[in-house]
């Protein structure tokens, strides 16, 4: 277990190193950061002077070396726009994004498990067919449209929900706040969470359904029926537990993907998380922030994957983490 | 866990007993100011902030003339000097008194600001005569002293002098990196900044000591939230989550206008959108007849009606109505037959193939406009290979002059026609910084001579004639292809009486805003 974690840590470092090289080498193609920082009538001479001052005219290796030297000490550069260390800026926005992912995950679990099991047990019922039909639509509709549709119905027409933003937040420490502890914050969280969940929910319903159906066909379930075990025990204790294995694997990876999907959801709802921050950074060519974001997201992927492997080991003890 | 839920319910009850007061304004813009330093970036966001928290010496009114603010009176005492009498008894947010010293301090800072120094390049000195009198001195007779004075927002010199805890000069101006002025603010304006989370929200409170007691403005608190996505911005207004938004995208005008809860207000703007024909890259563009043919082939009215949905004023020149240089005698000239005839005359009957680049997220409908222009040019045999890209990638291409036709939009910082000529149509001269955005490489020494003369002409009538003559020259030469001036649009809930405080510069004077009960 310990060896496993050490190896994962090493992998994480390699992943982040590769990400940093890639993101660093594309920065020239992202555009010119000075355009967003200077007014229209600033002369070319001054632009060049500022480029020199910021070290943007140095050769790639010099720039990368400088970046790496600082990165080793935990400094991923200073955001052009926020004028604060890029890592601090991102970490300050992280709670908002995690809230959203948390909200969406909760919705996915609450809905996908019962719906998936129901449609696996009663594949021919009308309700199952409706679930499958709706989930197909859910997968096909772009997040953007879902978000605008929800805003239109629930914020404008019905007036039940706020249209944008995170609402009141509760300050835990100076740099850490959460909307999960205020009524207003929770109220603001509902629509974005449903939007974010709308991408993954159909996927999970279908996944649980098909896995469960497969398991229900297996020999040991037939044997359980033959033994006369109550349906409740067959479905939930014997079948569902084995259904969960692939679901956990996919789930872990998808939570990472969800962090990426927050970019769209956060943009539409003006949710002040790091996905929105990233899109803004790309628009403003805030390269230090872009690089830092990619590295942080890379780290999140590695961490979630590691957690998934650990949980997998608990659910299915036949899996050995050392992999020998 | 129990503690946590206790905490939650405490917070819950707190958030329930704090309703918004009547005279509070919640507004949403597409962006928030990048910094609290009014000299860091010359942009709409910064100027809006400056008008809320500072006061200029003079400010534009809706007729495009000047109202005194911190300057009560002004007069030209010789051809290089304008004397301003400053308002007495004005206090900064910090409690310090406002005097001519602050104007001198601010003027120096403007001269050092990379973004603002161009506007003040003709000024040599701000000379303090006494505590409430100041002379602005220029190196030559300069007609735009008042125009420039709209950019002088006096800063609290005592507040911005000294060293911060980590030894930085408080007056320092940083384009990138941290500075005292980018996080702290003391002006004379109607509002103080009470809290700010960049990119999330800025909160303002009314300045209780504000000097302008005649203003009917009754807004106590303002919460400014940037909402980047236009549909969300509109939705927030329609849902009643905010009271005032700008800009309103053309696609939503009908919906906003139809609502009985909100008002939509539009105004002709001053930002010109145009196409530049690069004569250095394409030989045919050197021929005046080809340029004219293109000018005749482009249907400005069609673009304004169909693509901009009426949310633009078709243009035949740089200067919008209200500018001195605006020449009434220059009609739109859409005429495909004439265009074809001109192409034939120039020997390009069979047309040619060229490239074009345009941004796709900078101006309203920029990519669609470029596509429309492409199909209009195809009617006279000019095949255009169009590439559109995000602004971040577009500007470096623009600087390289990477295509034969480039799109650009321009707003004159000085609200004066000469600014268009200097940046967009003057012969390219890197030393003098002229023609910096003239990717067409159009060059007309005669027009340049007139432009230089207009720069030192303080007689308004003579200057008007000069600048209108230049417009005519550029029109006859088809120096570039003007498309339209982008309109401006704001929307606000009915109780917010936004109309009287709006202007074409797009700095609503929020200090004077009245919210009806």
Automatic annotation (TrEMBL), chain A:
<dbReference type="InterPro" id="IPR035906">
    <property type="entry name" value="MetI-like_sf"/>
</dbReference>
<dbReference type="Pfam" id="PF19300">
    <property type="entry name" value="BPD_transp_1_N"/>
</dbReference>
<keyword id="KW-1133">Transmembrane helix</keyword>
<feature type="transmembrane region" description="Helical">
    <location>
        <begin position="130"/>
        <end position="155"/>
    </location>
</feature>
<comment type="similarity">
    <text>Belongs to the binding-protein-dependent transport system permease family.</text>
</comment>
<feature type="transmembrane region" description="Helical">
    <location>
        <begin position="290"/>
        <end position="315"/>
    </location>
</feature>
<feature type="transmembrane region" description="Helical">
    <location>
        <begin position="9"/>
        <end position="27"/>
    </location>
</feature>
<feature type="transmembrane region" description="Helical">
    <location>
        <begin position="189"/>
        <end position="208"/>
    </location>
</feature>
<dbReference type="InterPro" id="IPR045621">
    <property type="entry name" value="BPD_transp_1_N"/>
</dbReference>
<dbReference type="InterPro" id="IPR000515">
    <property type="entry name" value="MetI-like"/>
</dbReference>
<dbReference type="GO" id="GO:0005886">
    <property type="term" value="C:plasma membrane"/>
</dbReference>
<feature type="transmembrane region" description="Helical">
    <location>
        <begin position="100"/>
        <end position="118"/>
    </location>
</feature>
<dbReference type="GO" id="GO:0055085">
    <property type="term" value="P:transmembrane transport"/>
</dbReference>
<keyword id="KW-1003">Cell membrane</keyword>
<keyword id="KW-0813">Transport</keyword>
<keyword id="KW-0812">Transmembrane</keyword>
<dbReference type="Pfam" id="PF00528">
    <property type="entry name" value="BPD_transp_1"/>
</dbReference>
<feature type="transmembrane region" description="Helical">
    <location>
        <begin position="243"/>
        <end position="264"/>
    </location>
</feature>
<protein>
    <submittedName>
        <fullName>ABC transporter permease</fullName>
    </submittedName>
</protein>
<keyword id="KW-0472">Membrane</keyword>
<feature type="domain" description="ABC transmembrane type-1">
    <location>
        <begin position="94"/>
        <end position="312"/>
    </location>
</feature>
Automatic annotation (TrEMBL), chain B:
<dbReference type="Pfam" id="PF00496">
    <property type="entry name" value="SBP_bac_5"/>
</dbReference>
<dbReference type="InterPro" id="IPR030678">
    <property type="entry name" value="Peptide/Ni-bd"/>
</dbReference>
<dbReference type="InterPro" id="IPR000914">
    <property type="entry name" value="SBP_5_dom"/>
</dbReference>
<dbReference type="GO" id="GO:1904680">
    <property type="term" value="F:peptide transmembrane transporter activity"/>
</dbReference>
<dbReference type="InterPro" id="IPR023765">
    <property type="entry name" value="SBP_5_CS"/>
</dbReference>
<protein>
    <submittedName>
        <fullName>Nickel/dipeptide/oligopeptide ABC transporter substrate-binding protein</fullName>
    </submittedName>
</protein>
<feature type="signal peptide">
    <location>
        <begin position="1"/>
        <end position="22"/>
    </location>
</feature>
<dbReference type="InterPro" id="IPR039424">
    <property type="entry name" value="SBP_5"/>
</dbReference>
<dbReference type="GO" id="GO:0043190">
    <property type="term" value="C:ATP-binding cassette (ABC) transporter complex"/>
</dbReference>
<comment type="similarity">
    <text>Belongs to the bacterial solute-binding protein 5 family.</text>
</comment>
<feature type="domain" description="Solute-binding protein family 5">
    <location>
        <begin position="68"/>
        <end position="429"/>
    </location>
</feature>
<keyword id="KW-0813">Transport</keyword>
<dbReference type="GO" id="GO:0015833">
    <property type="term" value="P:peptide transport"/>
</dbReference>
<dbReference type="GO" id="GO:0030288">
    <property type="term" value="C:outer membrane-bounded periplasmic space"/>
</dbReference>
<keyword id="KW-0732">Signal</keyword>
């Amino acid at each position: 277990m310990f060896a496993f974690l050490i190896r994962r840590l090493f992998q994480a470092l390699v992943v982040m190193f590769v990400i940093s090289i890639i993101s660093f080498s594309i920065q020239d193609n992202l555009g010119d950061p000075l355009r967003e920082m200077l007014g229209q009538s600033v002369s070319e001479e001054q632009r060049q002077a500022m480029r020199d001052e910021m070290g943007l005219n140095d050769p790639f290796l010099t720039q990368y070396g400088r970046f790496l030297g600082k990165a080793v000490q935990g400094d991923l550069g200073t955001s052009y726009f926020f004028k604060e260390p890029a890592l601090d800026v991102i970490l300050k926005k992280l709670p908002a994004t995690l809230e959203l992912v948390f909200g969406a995950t909760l919705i996915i679990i609450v809905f996908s498990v019962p719906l998936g099991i129901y449609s696996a047990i009663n594949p021919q019922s009308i309700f199952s067919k409706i679930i499958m039909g709706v989930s197909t639509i859910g997968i096909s509709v772009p997040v953007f449209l879902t978000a605008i549709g929800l805003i239109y119905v629930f914020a404008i027409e019905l007036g039940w929900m706020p249209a944008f933003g995170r609402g009141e937040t509760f300050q835990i420490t100076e740099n850490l706040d959460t909307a999960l502890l205020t009524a207003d914050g929770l109220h603001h969280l509902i629509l974005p969470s449903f939007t974010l969940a709308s991408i993954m929910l159909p996927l999970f319903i279908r996944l649980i359904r098909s896995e469960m159906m497969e398991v229900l066909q297996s020999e040991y379930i037939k044997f359980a029926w033959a033994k006369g075990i109550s349906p409740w025990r067959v479905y939930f204790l014997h079948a569902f537990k084995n259904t969960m294995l692939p679901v956990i694997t996919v789930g872990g990876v998808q939570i990472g993907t969800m962090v990426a999907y927050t970019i769209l959801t956060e943009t539409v709802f003006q949710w002040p998380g790091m996905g929105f921050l990233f899109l803004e950074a790309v628009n403003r060519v805030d390269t230090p922030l872009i690089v830092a974001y990619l590295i942080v997201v890379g780290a999140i992927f590695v961490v979630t994957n590691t957690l998934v492997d650990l949980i997998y080991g608990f659910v299915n003890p036949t899996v050995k983490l050392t992999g020998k | 866990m129990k503690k946590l839920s206790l905490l939650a319910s405490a917070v819950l009850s707190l958030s329930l007993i704090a309703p918004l007061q009547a005279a509070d304004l919640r507004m949403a813009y597409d962006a928030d100011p990048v910094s609290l330093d009014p000299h860091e970036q010359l942009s709409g966001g910064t100027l809006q902030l400056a008008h809320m928290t500072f006061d200029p010496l003079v400010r534009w009114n809706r007729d495009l003339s000047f109202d005194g603010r911190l300057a009560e009176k002004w007069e030209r005492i010789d051809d290089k000097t304008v004397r301003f009498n400053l308002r007495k008894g004005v206090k900064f947010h910090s409690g310090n008194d406002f005097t001519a010293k602050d104007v001198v301090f601010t003027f120096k800072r403007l001269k050092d600001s990379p973004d603002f120094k161009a506007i003040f390049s003709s000024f040599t000195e701000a000379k303090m005569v006494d505590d409430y009198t100041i002379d602005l001195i220029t190196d030559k007779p300069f007609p735009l002293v008042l125009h420039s004075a709209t950019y002088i927002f006096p800063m609290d010199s005592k507040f911005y002098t000294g060293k911060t805890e980590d030894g930085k000069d408080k007056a320092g101006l940083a384009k990138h990196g941290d500075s005292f002025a980018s996080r702290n603010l003391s002006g004379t304006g109607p509002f103080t900044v009470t809290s700010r989370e960049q990119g999330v929200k800025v909160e303002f409170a009314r300045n209780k000591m504000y000097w302008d007691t005649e203003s009917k403005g009754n807004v106590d608190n303002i919460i400014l939230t940037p909402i980047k996505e236009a549909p969300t911005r509109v939705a927030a207004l329609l849902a009643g989550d905010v009271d005032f938004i700008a800009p309103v995208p053309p696609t939503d005008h009908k919906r906003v206008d139809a609502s009985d809860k909100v008002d939509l207000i539009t105004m002709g703007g001053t930002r010109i959108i145009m196409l530049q024909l690069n004569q250095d890259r394409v030989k045919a563009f050197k021929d005046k007849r080809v340029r004219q043919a293109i000018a005749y082939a482009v249907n400005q009215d069609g673009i304004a009606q169909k693509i901009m949905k009426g949310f633009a004023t078709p243009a035949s020149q740089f200067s919008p109505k209200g500018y001195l240089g605006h020449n009434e005698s220059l009609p739109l000239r859409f005429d495909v037959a004439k265009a074809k005839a001109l192409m034939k005359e120039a020997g390009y009957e069979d047309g040619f193939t060229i490239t074009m680049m345009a941004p796709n997220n900078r101006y309203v409908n920029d990519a669609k406009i470029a596509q429309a222009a492409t199909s209009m040019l195809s009617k006279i045999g000019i095949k255009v290979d169009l590439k559109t890209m995000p602004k971040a990638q577009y500007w470096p291409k623009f600087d390289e002059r990477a295509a034969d036709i480039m799109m650009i939009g321009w707003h004159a910082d000085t609200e004066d026609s000469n600014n268009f000529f200097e940046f967009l149509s003057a012969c390219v001269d890197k030393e003098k910084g002229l023609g910096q955005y003239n990717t067409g490489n159009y060059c007309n020494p005669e027009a340049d001579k007139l432009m230089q003369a207009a720069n030192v002409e303080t007689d308004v009538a003579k200057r008007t004639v000069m600048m209108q003559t230049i417009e005519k020259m550029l029109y006859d030469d088809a120096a570039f292809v003007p498309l339209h001036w982008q309109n401006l649009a704001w929307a606000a809930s009915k109780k917010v009486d936004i109309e009287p405080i709006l202007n074409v510069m797009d700095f609503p004077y929020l200090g004077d805003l009245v919210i009806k009960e």
